[in-house]
Amino acid sequence: MTRIISQADIPALLPMAECVEVIEQALIARAEGEVTLPVRQLMWLPDRRGLLGLMPAHLGPPRIMGGKFLSVIPANHGTELDTHQGVVLLFEAERGRLLAVVDATSITAIRTAAASAVATRALAREDAGDLAILGTGVQARSHMEAMPVAREIRNVRVWDRTAERAEAFARRESERHGIEVRAARSAREAVEGADLICTTTAATEPVLEGAWLSLGAHVNAVGACFPTARELDTETVLKSRFFVDTREGVLSEAGDFLIPKGAGDVDDGHIQGEIGEVLTGKVEGRQTSDEITVFESLGIGIYDLAAAHQVWRNAEAQGAGIEVELGGRRSDP
To answer: Which of 99, 184, 187, 277 is 20 to 30 A off residue 56, Cα-Cα?
Structure first.
């Protein structure tokens, strides 16, 4: 039997703190060579207004495989629909049975912020707690939930190009989390003095300037995932110790890095390592309290696979979702 799990079911089946631990273990498995992770495949629509993507992966323990199949339509931003629509298909690797079909929208929202929380625990200063969030969409909300898992958040400033959205976000999230969230009038006002910064926008040009960053700040760069788009200016990249989820992904897709590289400002050696390598001690993370660190997060298939497996395990235990007959049960001719 295959379990189908809807968008509405997933938040209860994948609490943020639980997802942070799952993603950390997946990143450790990646660093220890227990993962198969091809670079994702993207098919752009002819008019370039959106794309269809496939992100396959295999994870050793617990011997699962599968992938996320989704559409990305940036024009959905600010509408009733998420920019990401799709499913995660979860198979067991022993006999290839399809275990679950899981909504990808909720998985993507939770697992991306959980990865930022893992990176924040690994790279941010222990006393970091002054948070700036650039953007007010799905990932901004998820990061607002994830950052308190990683550090004790004292206050939050949020910025959006539309002031009304920033103000609505501040009101809603202040009430939701019991933490003061203030709408900033500019990205600079949000960032100056912050020691944790999350960029979660759909921007194609920089929204974060290195000149605004305080000594010791940590940045989770989440929004830009195409070679021609970036949220970080060149100074931010140059003045930071730069960490990634995977080198292959960043060197093929991350405009935050590829644009300065194309201009001759950085080379591949500027990448300090993958976050999984920091977790396993293969690469040193933060070295001093004053250095600036960046985590360039593109999102990788093992995030979706590990998160979907945890959702499936919890759904099995709780009887959530719907069971249907799918897959390759053999019948006699």
So the answer is: 277
CATH superfamily of the 125-296 domain: NAD(P)-binding Rossmann-like Domain (3.40.50.720)
Q: How confident is the model over 54-77, as a mean pLDDT?
A: 91
SS3 content of the chain, % helix, strand, coil (to 5): 40, 25, 35
Q: State how far the Cα of 13 lies from the Cα of 315, in Å rounded to an integer.
A: 7
* CA dist., res. 333 & res. 331, Å (int): 6
The vertex-307 CA angle with 317 and 256, nearest 5°, equals 170
Please choose, from the candidates 283, 302, 286, 275, the residue with its C-alpha nearest in 3D space to the C-alpha of residue 116. Answer: 275
Nearest residue to 158 (alpha-carbon basis) of 116, 128, 191, 125: 191
Predicted pLDDT of residue 179? 94
- Is 279:31 a contact under the CB 8 Å cutoff? yes
8 A C-beta contact, residue 225 and residue 254 = yes
**Residues contacting 89, CB < 8 A, separation 6+:** 66, 67, 68, 69, 98, 100, 101, 102
Domain ranges of the chain: 2-108+301-324, 125-296
Confidence band of 82 (pLDDT split at 50, 70, 90)? confident
Q: What order of strands is seen across the sheet that includes strand 271-274?
A: 181-183, 155-159, 130-134, 196-199, 218-221, 292-296, 240-244, 271-274
Instruction: For the domain made up of 2-108+301-324, give the CATH fold.
Output: ornithine cyclodeaminase, domain 1 (3.30.1780)
Cis amide linkage into residue 38, ω under 30° from 0? no
pTM of the shown model: 0.93
